Description:
Distance between the termini: 21 Å
Number of strands: 16
Low-confidence stretches: none
CATH topology of the largest domain: TIM Barrel
Oligomer: single chain
Number of domains: 3
Bound molecules: phosphoenolpyruvate, magnesium ion
CATH architecture of the largest domain: Alpha-Beta Barrel
Largest sheet: 8 strands, mixed
Mean pLDDT: 90
Radius of gyration: 25 Å
Strand content: 5-15%
Shape: globular
Number of helices: 23
Amino acid sequence: xxxxxxxxxxxxxxxxxxxxxxxxxxxxxxxxxxxxxxxxxxxxxxxxxxxxxxxxxxxxxxxxxxxxxxxxxxxxxxxxxxxxxxxxxxxxxxxxxxxxxxxxxxxxxxxxxxxxxxxxxxxxxxxxxxxxxxxxxxxxxxxxxxxxxxxxxxxxxxxxxxxxxxxxxxxxxxxxxxxxxxxxxxxxxxxxxxxxxxxxxxxxxxxxxxxxxxxxxxxxxxxxxxxxxxxxxxxxxxxxxxxxxxxxxxxxxxxxxxxxxxxxxxxxxxxxxxxxxxxxxxxxxxxxxxxxxxxxxxxxxxxxxxxxxxxxxxxxxxxxxxxxxxxxxxxxxxxxxxxxxxxxxxxxxxxxxxxxxxxxxxxxxxxxxxxxxxxxxxxxxxxxxxxxxxxxxxxxxxxxxxxxxxxxxxxxxxxxxxxxxxxxxxxxxxxxxxxxxxxxxxxxxxxxxxxxxxxxxxxxxxxxxxxxxxxxxxxxxxxxxxxxxxxxxxxxxxxxxxxxxxxxxxxxxxxxxxxxxxxxxxxxxxxxxxxxxxxxxxxxxxxxxxxxxxxxxxxxxxxx
Length: 560
Ligand code: PEP
Ligand code: MG
């Protein structure tokens, strides 16, 4: 067997196929020397813009919903005569080469949009995308974005922006590998949502030649760059077994001996709620409300919020559990209307509930809107606060929520202090939900977005599992629910471990429900507890994962 490359597996599954490289991003072209033939350089600009516009219209024609709207807006920008005028004048009057003239002209438009802020400001990145495409055309380099060679392939990229990941066609892209990126980055979350195997943080992959056949394992994060025939055949069989599986989950979630574990979905809007209901989710374990308002310059009104929440609650049947998280702004998710200012260290700054308690009018308005939406639908609405560290915060949140008329209150366990005080927290609120993404980053002191620190941010880290076990034990003592809503719950090998540690529900991207449900069903509660001991007692994350995977025959059968 050839030498394996190791990255960080973020979406399980096996893939075999040829490498197609994502083009490197277009960078600022030089401002000189002046073109030898100014008129000829001017004459290149509009045709290049037209080609890009035609390509964007064609893509828009094949897309749907929000993606279609974004692509149409982009196509219109690409043929904007004002952009052409500005760039042509710069070539003619200042002797700037056409690629740089387009670059500067587009930046002028971008800065105008950024200055306008809010929804308009959020379009600034679309202008950059158009700019890069036109400049790429003028320079004769491949267009940025996901390539389409006309056959299925394994995508290799330095990094993927969420916007790129959103345009991945899972029929074409068999899997992807990035050189950079962390395990809980948006890219990783989207890969799981699409249900395609993915490995991040594998810098060596950039040295592999285009067209090379790879075998990739998205669970262990390994890549075989020179597989022999037997390895390819075995991997193809495994991928086919996975493809043959039913992607809809027909719950309810339980262990082999009938111990009920609700399998819930993580969502951010009404469309996500409908997709989750269609995928068979038993409810929602994490509704990330801030996702509705990331591009808003001003605070949404109470009635607007009520309407947005009711649309989510209405996606599910009567009595369905929906756990709503109040705004988790700050750090990587700033909300413009909260006026947070600059912080030297935002992940350790004023974020989550800390903002809610500093600006209680914002928190109260949201809680009232959630309560109003809850009473207009038949959902069983629970509410929880993000980023809670100490008991007094849990008490304050509980008070605000009850005053708004909400009956079931909880806190997220994302900070080690909260895990260590889980019993006391459960004395105050009705439930806790463990956010393993942040709990990992704060336990291991490793930025969750960092590629080089991906191995530290691994949810199989024994220290993290030990903390989760403490929270599970507190839940049992207090006879109160302990949910898990971080990405760890979506790993079908880790899910039984989490149940063994005392989790009473698991919440994940809807695509992962069927995998997790199928594996969980093969293990009794006692077997889950035994697996938890294997993982917690392991010397490190890799050996824990390997020991548990070896003890879970269902993974092999399901091609996971
Ligand atoms: C988490 O931290 O695990 C979590 C679920 O919250 P988010 O990913 O939105 O920070
Ligand atoms: Mg979090």
